Amino acid sequence: MSFNALPQSSMPLLMGNSLNAWSDALTGFAPMGLPLGLLVIAAIPLVFIALYALTYGVYGERKISAFMQDRLGPMEVGKWGILQTLADILKLLQKEDIVPTSADKFLFVIGPGVLFVGSFLAFAVLPFGPAFIGANLNVGLFYAIGIVALEVVGILAAGWGSNNKWALYGAVRSVAQIVSYEIPAAIALLCGAMMAGTLDMQEINVLQSGTWGFAHFFLFQSPIAWLPFLIYFIASLAETNRAPFDIPEAESELVAGYFTEYSGMKFAVIFLAEYGSMFMVSAIISIVFLGGWNSPLPNIGPLALNDMTTGPVWGAFWIIMKGFFFIFVQMWLRWTLPRLRVDQLMYLCWKVLTPFAFLSFVLTAIWMIYVP
Amino acid sequence: MEEGTIGSKQVQLSEAAYSVIHEKFGEAISAFDRNPTMPFFEVQDTALWTDIALFMRDHPKLKFNYMACLSGVDYPEEEKLGIVCNLESIGAYPHRIAVKVKCPREGGSIPSVSCVWHTANWHEREAYDMLGILFTGHPDMRRILCPDDWEGWPLRKDYRVQESYHGIKVPY
Amino acid sequence: MAGQGSVRVTRKSDNVVIIEKDLATEEMVLSMGPQHPSTHGVLRLECRTDGEVVTEAEPYLGYLHRCFEKHCEHVDYQAIVPYTDRMDYLAGMNSEMAYAIAVEKLLDIEIPRRVEFIRVIVSELNRIASHLVAIGTYAIDLGAFTPFLFCFRDREHILNMLEWASGARMLYNYIWIGGLAYDVPSDFQKRVGEFVDYFRPKAVELSRLLTENEIFVKRTKGIGIMPADVAINYGWSGPMLRGSGVQWDLRRNDPYSIYPELDFAVPVPDGKFSDVGDCLSRHLVRALEIEESLKIIEQCIGKMPPAEGFDPRAAVPKRIRPKAGEVYARAENPRGELGFYILSDGKSTSPLRCKARSSCFVNLSAMKDLSKGQLIPDLVAIIGSIDIVLGEVDR
């Protein structure tokens, strides 16, 4: 990466290093009264999702799974098959966009859109660096938890609108699963919010910065934080329908679940939404527990590693890398574990994760009060 | 040589089992055919087949609890259709025996033994499908491999394939 | 439970009225297959479902019916061998062997000893390959993708060896009546030995990845339990019957070929790791059988008579016309008992009747009973554990 070579002092090119400097400046950019800056802000995560889904999401997953399964993965299109995803996209673009005759056309068409918007809206409050955040809400975390629930509407619309029994099963399973898992997920995140004392995403990051690098992350601040961290990670797998909780699209049971009837670009949009929310939950977990854009490297005496790796671009680098790491873990699990059954999934949610989430909530509260 | 002794020992075991059945049913079953490849007896009184089957399964000295195979056969010279059942006993005795049951080609039927051995259920459906043998008392007498509206009984020796099936030309 | 909607009104007092509403529900008929990822081919199950619970699943067969028995009545005995490959296409060698044994019994001919050894080696190799497919696809049914590819990677080695010997990857036409098509290539034993050494650690890895996985155990333990006596009554055989705790293996109980001389165990579940008769037991039996097959192969390599002066077609009859008679002979296939009932009239060179007793066909017939009251994911687990090959079910 080329910006590694740049000296840190020259990094804040035109803006200061203050919080949200870039995004504030972009918001103000409105030539001829047109809010172009706002559009740019919205476009950045969109382009980011598209690029990442194309490269790391699809191609990376195929290569990673191939590595785990003792095979090569895509090798034909381009060197090491790097253009494979592009070829796939071209193929999908040319596909006929089929709407089944007996489908509910309106629901069928808006389903993928709502699904994508649901995962995309949450990117608004993700701080991509110490100077960039789409919308600096003071209830950012709450907003992120809430807006994810919109995905359920998209899935239900897609599954119901398809007028297909498999899709209906997939949609019903998905709704039951996502709604259930939001409870442990939200409570686990609240533990992080309690440690920070704020719901502001940028604020949570700032509280975890310091010269000791990773030692300032909430995960290492209190031993109890590991519990909500693990709970949120497990719940986030279920919320994004990833294995071992991929029962809504369980291909060996429900053919393809709620998107059985989709083809062409609508199918691609559903995939984009899936990869979008994969990154979103990974970013949230790294923001709340692993310091978001903060560098994990500590200053060791004269070797000021932390100072050297802090800055707007470094921040974006760290949060994306942390997100990618969790996506890698998600893929790793997907290619290792079998799928749970519906009732086992609900058992895990209501009888294991939720009580432990409450427990960790209480323990965190006690820790925050009695341990300085 | 060794094969031969094993074979004849099997025949003796089958014969011993046969004598138990013969004692009970007497003239309803034929004499024992002690050929080395597949010793069998034939059920003469077809109506008694279910009773014989139950007896064979439940008698403490027989315990033919396992039906290996049930094959439908066409005997055009005798004007008959028949089934050949290969029975044996798992876990109780080392004996095995084959039973033949025959019925007239036209309008005949054989009592079903699907209530005795579940295996017979699908095999009898297959025999019905392929040869048109009717099994009375079968819980679900439908075709199994061919489509429900297929005409004729494919494994009968005088079978002629139908000209067209739903507008598709069949003989090619 | 599906039921009519009803409204119950209870009057507690003058101004407190409790109205309870049960919404009307109805059963949904779900056609699972013939194009469904986990029906292993073209099986169709017509499921009546109440929510996720399957109240009844009726199997419909015949989508792959290729008139095996009708063909048999029109071709020579030798020409039937390729058809047997196409019945259970995952275990062609075993099917050929069962058929060859049946006709040889009818003809009463002596087989050279080396032929018997080669037959046992190739069919045990094929048994391993077939069990690998069974285990791999079972993993996929339960959502684990990686074990499937591990299985197929190792199966590929076996197919390469069988291709080396016979010239074909799946449909071999290698075991002829009275002999073999060819002798094995000169270094065959060495390569098989290398494969056994290579495969042992891979089998351990596979079992650690799949069999010992907590989720896998949770998905299969206690699901689709079949008691031993019912299993026998259904005519189950092979790993299915052994999974129910009945130690019944035709290689031991109705010995053929050189199996009496070989030392191998017939694994049955002991009820410690799995509940006897459930899906996990059936899976375990298959996994353990792979180990036993490796043992058999090792012994065969050691004991095999030398190739000098060996003609694999020495005992192959020029023209096969058995004397009038009938035979029912069977062999232990990876999926159970594959039997052939052959009726010869003594005049013709093709059988008067050749019935294949297919193990999958019989094993599958219990599906209706096993599926009652199961969840859809469990139904998938049960179908997978039966390990059907539709080519053999429909023939």
UniProtKB/TrEMBL annotation, chain A:
Keywords: Cell membrane, Membrane, NAD, Quinone, Translocase, Transmembrane, Transmembrane helix, Ubiquinone
UniProt-listed Enzyme Commission number(s): 7.1.1.-
Primary localization: membrane
Protein name, UniProt field: NADH-quinone oxidoreductase subunit H
Pfam name, any one: NADHdh
Catalytic activities: a quinone + NADH + 5 H(+)(in) = a quinol + NAD(+) + 4 H(+)(out)
Xref: InterPro entries: NADH_UbQ_OxRdtase_su1/FPO, NADH_UbQ_OxRdtase_su1_CS
Family, as annotated: Belongs to the complex I subunit 1 family.
From TrEMBL, chain B:
SUPFAM superfamilies: Nqo5-like (SSF143243)
InterPro entries: NADH_DH_suC, NADH_quin_OxRdtase_su_C/D-like, NADH_UbQ_OxRdtase_30kDa_su, NADH_UbQ_OxRdtase_CS
Protein purpose: NDH-1 shuttles electrons from NADH, via FMN and iron-sulfur (Fe-S) centers, to quinones in the respiratory chain. The immediate electron acceptor for the enzyme in this species is believed to be a menaquinone. Couples the redox reaction to proton translocation (for every two electrons transferred, four hydrogen ions are translocated across the cytoplasmic membrane), and thus conserves the redox energy in a proton gradient.
One Pfam family it belongs to: Complex1_30kDa
Name of the coding gene: nuoC
Protein name: NADH-quinone oxidoreductase subunit C
GO molecular function: NADH dehydrogenase (quinone) (non-electrogenic) activity; NADH dehydrogenase (ubiquinone) activity; quinone binding
Gene Ontology CC terms, in alphabetical order: plasma membrane
Main localization, broad class: membrane
Keywords: Cell membrane, Membrane, NAD, Quinone, Translocase, Transport
Subcellular location: Cell membrane
Organism: Pelodictyon luteolum
Reactions this protein catalyses: a quinone + NADH + 5 H(+)(in) = a quinol + NAD(+) + 4 H(+)(out)
Subunit structure comment from the entry: NDH-1 is composed of 14 different subunits. Subunits NuoB, C, D, E, F, and G constitute the peripheral sector of the complex.
PROSITE patterns: COMPLEX1_30K (PS00542)
PANTHER family noted in UniProt: NADH DEHYDROGENASE [UBIQUINONE] IRON-SULFUR PROTEIN 3, MITOCHONDRIAL, NADH DEHYDROGENASE UBIQUINONE IRON-SULFUR PROTEIN 3
UniProt domain NADH:ubiquinone oxidoreductase 30kDa subunit: residue ranges: 48-163
Family: Belongs to the complex I 30 kDa subunit family.
EC number: 7.1.1.-
Its membrane topology: Peripheral membrane protein
NCBIfam families tied to this protein: NuoC_fam
